[in-house]
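Posting this for the archive.
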Amino acid sequence: MSDAPALKEIFNHERLKHIADETFAVYPAFDRKRFIAQATEGLDGLSLMQRLNRVSQSLHAGLPQDYLAALDILYQLAPRLNSAFVSLILPEYVALYGQDDFERSMEALKFFTAFGSSEFAVRHFLRRDFSRAIEVMHGWSLDDNPHVRRLASEGCRPRLPWSFRLENLMVDPSPVLDILDNLKADDSLYVRKSVANHFNDITKDNPEWVLDQLEGWSLDNPNSAWIARHALRSLIKKGDVRALTLMGAGEKAQVLLSDLKVTPDAISLGERIELAFTLTSTSKDVQRLIIDYAIHYVKKSGGTSAKVFKFKTLELAAGASVTLRREQQVRNFTTRVHYAGRHEVDVLINGECLGRSGFDLNA
């Protein structure tokens, strides 16, 4: 198991002192002791996002109660914070105390996003006044700054991790189409990752809508092709024929899978396995192969639940062979706890399982 500190320790006592000192530097009336006392109350029992929220509330207690005066101080504080994630306390402040001043607050979110991200905070404005907020975000999608363009996409993802869901967009994603269309060939990888994740979110509720959009794209553009490939990852893992076809792998793979092995046959938690196999083409033509693998993790109940992992996409020439290997460590995560037992491993080629092996996880 990993000995790395919990992510919530981003907001530890040392970091809170840094925030207090930097706020005092731009606002000498700021009571640092009071801030730290409020921010650290019950700190150990708070999650990452609860700590973020607590810090913003503690800032508010020590800043001018006039919103615009406080905002001016936060503008000065933003470049002084020593962590991009910690700077999220600034848009969080806007979400907590600025919803009655829509225009200035949206401008503040646009400014603060360059220091970390305003993706969580802007969702409160979308929930309160969707049509007005989405119109502003459409303008952001045309901005010169890639941080602002990314915010236009990331902030209105229907299933953004660590935030509440935007139920209206889960039902009908069409209001964000113009935003995503403006960004479908963006030069910034930072922006493209957000657009791909946004489309992948939508596939959970409206897969056909996503496929309809992407089938209309020119995938000769490498930026658009990159987005489409990553946007369809969940559908490809499910073996969706339209998604596989869009990626040039809609046909059944004409290959022979041999020498499939998972080694070692038994491991303990924290150790690694290696998956290895050979593919030999039985086709007279070059074929594109999208190769994934699934591990059937043992659950506490004794049943299993499969998780699909990306492996490789390749072009296999007629009659050619290729041997592939992949290592993976089996360790616990906050989102997945492992249990002892037999773990089956499937090799998936163009959405079809062509072979199975496995390993035992010892207690």
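The chain is about 40% helix and 20% strand. The CA atoms of residues 24 and 30 lie 5 Å apart.
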